[in-house]
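Moderator note: this is an archived Q&A kept for reference. The question asked for a predicted structure of one protein chain; the sequence and the answer are reproduced below.
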Amino acid sequence: MMDQKVSIFFSERKVKFFLFLFILSILFFISGARLVSSDEVSMYLTVENIIKNGSFAIPFPDAPNSTTLDGKSYTWYEAGNIIAGIPMYLIGYGITSIISISPSLSTLIIKAAVSLTSAFVGAWIAIMFYSLSRYYGVTRRLSVGMAIALILTTFLLPYLKMFMREPILALCMIGGTGYIIRALKEKKSKDVIIAGIFIGYGILTKLAFVINLLPLGLYIFWKIFTGKNDMKFSVLLKFSIPIILIGFMGTGLYNFIRFSNPLNTGYAGGTSFNIPFYVGMFGLLFSPGKGMFWFAPLLLLIFPTINEFRKHHRDETYLIGGMFIVNLILSSVYIAWGGDGSWGPRYLSPFLPLFFLMIAFYLNRAQKIVKQFAITLTVLGFIVQIGGISIYAGAYLREIGEYPYQKNFDDPEFLSKAHFIPNYSPIIGHWKMLKRNIGEHLEGNYPRLGISQDTPDKRLPIGEEDRSKLLHTIDFWFTYGLSANIQGWIIIVGIVLLASSITVSAFGLQRSLSLKE
């Protein structure tokens, strides 16, 4: 019996290892290796100045998405994603210190390294999902399949190419929820602390993440007072301490260092919550330009899933449902409910792992015809994401004339074409642009971009005359390399190495799945 348990343990470790490597290799392959959005650039510049100057201050005024104070800029964004980007910045900096290249190219390489931060987070999400799915009794093969579907067929995928907060929030969501569920079921105090660390880091990454404490707190109280749990209040204490230290005190210290006030976040972006709930709710769930069921078709199975999951895991159904509802309400009334310009309902992406967990449980018990339907929805989701990862979201808004923004966020007609008119849906529009741009590349008419030495806005390292050409690019590192006249052999070597890594990890994953469960 002991030998069998050891064998199962090591076979599970093999699955996780190859799943991590497989997802990471794919995310590296499809990377854009660039930082373009104002969110990314603002956080990147903060990382850069932490490394170079030991300061959160960006040493010039009017940096993207920042507050200016005494001639310096401070990003609007919380510390979590910035901290996560530091190791990748150091790796990029180390590479550029070894090789002899121009300063402008050196900056591009460091930015490319930082842009890969979310790829590691995505691979971590996959194995976290796999572990939790196995905990709920889902077969090994289906757990792997759903983990891959979660990453490659949902609107989370484009954010795994970007230095954005959503991937970390998704990781913290499944990490915090998964560990607290297991801790209360199995009475493991260590898991309670780990859950608190995940939730605390989620708050450190985005302060609005704190809203999840309401359903989580109610769930914990319900479990410790209705179940035979001898941990009682020690659960609340062990859960709360890392949240207080990392989430609240960490955020307070970060604010104090920047503004001498722990309560001053410096945020000057959209801070209003004046959108009618029905507008944001409809937009996030059903609109052709943002609706989550269009951007992740497999979520259609959530409707039969809820009843099946509730029969076996009632409390966890209410927990996940409660977390989704409070966040849906908050996001729906937020002035920038669409998270623009972005792909799909950006603010709902952290919930995708938990929804997919419930769907995996449902499919594990479903009839063959339901599983076949799920495969069809998965393929559709993958087709949708091809458009999302091949064309940068901001480029499409420029293409249809809705960027630069012509109206305010709270104007009912703000991005009305991209949000609500079906034939302007990014799902369709991105594919149209992709078809055109692929044709231009095959004909040899791809854009030639010159790297500019003078980049005062620190966003796009190309000359003003070249920026219109970005609408004709394809958002992958190798196509950008082609446009930037990078030597062809470097691009080919990179493609071969990453393709080999994908192949080897896929083969290893297949072999590990054949081992006895």
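Archived answer notes: The CA atoms of residues 200 and 245 lie 8 Å apart.
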